Amino acid sequence: MSGADFSHRNDVGGLFRAHYPWLCTRLRQYLGSASSVEDIASDTFVQLLESPAALSIREPRALLTTIARRLIYQRWRRRDLERRHLDQLQQVERLSAPSPEELAQLTQALHGLERSLARLPGKVRATFLLSRIDGLTYPQIAAELGISQRSVSTYMTRSQALCTQLIANQSLNPLLLTQRSA
């Protein structure tokens, strides 16, 4: 530690002893809780301590007030940003959360789809699942199962017909069955 650093620390220490209670009293008009007042006041002196060594501070209270206000504004901006972010998350959750009735209908429809898919031959079922669940394209499915793309298309048509029949019978959510292929 150099002599200038030591001198700067001593100067800030002297300012702290002389002005900390005054700064806390001043900050109470902006902040509600005593812990927030103490946090901002302490952070003010930390910033002053971390600043380059000042030659002389003519108006220490004005400087401390300026630093403290900046810290308060930063805290308020951060709090407002957090609040907006949380509000957006809550809104997304409300919009995307299905009602219990919709959930029950969807579960029932999925069980019906599962039973129907179980009756399909293995490669037809695998083709459908690779397309809808894994999101593979027809060429990728063909390579995965070792079949032609024409077979993939035929199998998908067959499974799509089954799904169409389920939609007609159980009002299955068509979004589950939208085509993502080739």
UniProtKB/TrEMBL annotation:
MF GO annotations: DNA binding; sigma factor activity
Any single GO BP term: DNA-templated transcription initiation
Coiled-coil regions listed in the entry: none
InterPro entries assigned to the protein according to its UniProt record, in alphabetical order: RNA_pol_sigma-70-like (IPR039425), RNA_pol_sigma-70_dom (IPR014284), RNA_pol_sigma70_r2 (IPR007627), RNA_pol_sigma70_r4_t2 (IPR013249), RNA_pol_sigma_r2 (IPR013325), RNA_pol_sigma_r3/r4-like (IPR013324), WH-like_DNA-bd_sf (IPR036388)
Alphabetical keyword list: Sigma factor, Transcription, Transcription regulation
Transmembrane feature ranges: none
Presence of keyword Transmembrane: no
Domain RNA polymerase sigma-70 region stretches: 15-80
Pfam families: Sigma70_r2 (PF04542), Sigma70_r4_2 (PF08281)
RNA polymerase sigma factor 70 region 4 type domain boundaries: 113-159
Taxonomy, superkingdom: Bacteria
Keyword Transcription belongs to the record: yes
SUPFAM superfamilies: Sigma2 domain of RNA polymerase sigma factors (SSF88946), Sigma3 and sigma4 domains of RNA polymerase sigma factors (SSF88659)
Family: Belongs to the sigma-70 factor family. ECF subfamily.
PANTHER family (alphabetical): RNA POLYMERASE ECF-TYPE SIGMA FACTO, RNA POLYMERASE SIGMA FACTOR FECI-RELATED
Protein name, UniProt field: RNA polymerase sigma-70 factor, ECF subfamily
